[in-house]
User: What shape does this take?
Amino acid sequence: MYDTHTISFPGLGIPEFTVNETAFTVFGMQIKWYGVILTVGILSALFLFFYNARKREGLPEDHLYNVALFTVPIAIIGARAVYVATRWDIYRGDFLKMLNIREGGLAIYGGIIFGALTVLVYSKVCKLSFLKIADAVAPAVMLGQAIGRWGNFCNGEAFGSSAHVETLFCRMIVDGRATHPTFLYESLWNAVGLVLLLFVFYRRKKFDGEIFFLYIGWYGFGRTFIELLRTDSLYLFGNVKFSVVVGICSVILSVVGMLVLSRREKRLRAEPTYTAKFRAASVEAVPDEQLAEEVAAEDAENAENAENAENAEESAEEKSAAEAAAEPTEEPTEESPSDETPPQE
Assistant: This one.
């Protein structure tokens, strides 16, 4: 007998239906919808990361696969580790239970933190730009989160409660209980953030790290308020919710990071060597073909002007040499002998 949940959205006109947690079985082993959807989210995130890293950031392709191979498993381990740490009263003394991830229990913030640390270490060892990789990863993680939250829907979890929730038009009835569909709130919040990052901010990116810190701030801000509604939160101590604290810290980190990087970019723009470096980077990494063509045309024009100036200088030198050759030269005249005779001895 599989675990099932009856769900409805009466305010949206969606009648009651049944959701089975199990998608299918393989040799008697139940494969949960949560795992299937999470896998789809991870694969989708990887495809978007590869695209951003190659087309937008110009990162070496070989390193991208290494980043993925290291980051994905370590992020999953981190998500599980944080979940276990915040439910230590349940897992204390039972190591096998800690490892049994099939029972569920992942903390997304743990995955983000451990994944970011993995990318940081890899970028330092391989002498790559951490901020460039982080910019490519951020929208990908947001896509994975938007998809992955629907695994919570299939599990009939990640919902919330508040006063008068029974009267909300968007209320979700789970097994006869009126709740906030917080999984849906977060999924939509991430979807909106993803669109803004890809189609607004990425196209106007001014410095490396901008997309990463915008993601941190956007997700942290939304998650803080959504978490206040949830009834199945992870707690640090007492009634202090783990994700609320981390969400507030994320917003602060985002603001500080944006200010620091913005000021650094202004200082770099003031340096004489910045323009040439910026043009080279733009032609290589900027996805906007029109901008790349304009920069290339400007560089070609500058090269042509330099060549013309060099030709003009050579012509001037040749003209000067010709004029010098054409001037008559005065023959030296022999001096007439002096009338004075030398004294004789």
User: Anything to note?
Assistant: Confidence is low (pLDDT under 50) at residues 282-288, 333-345.
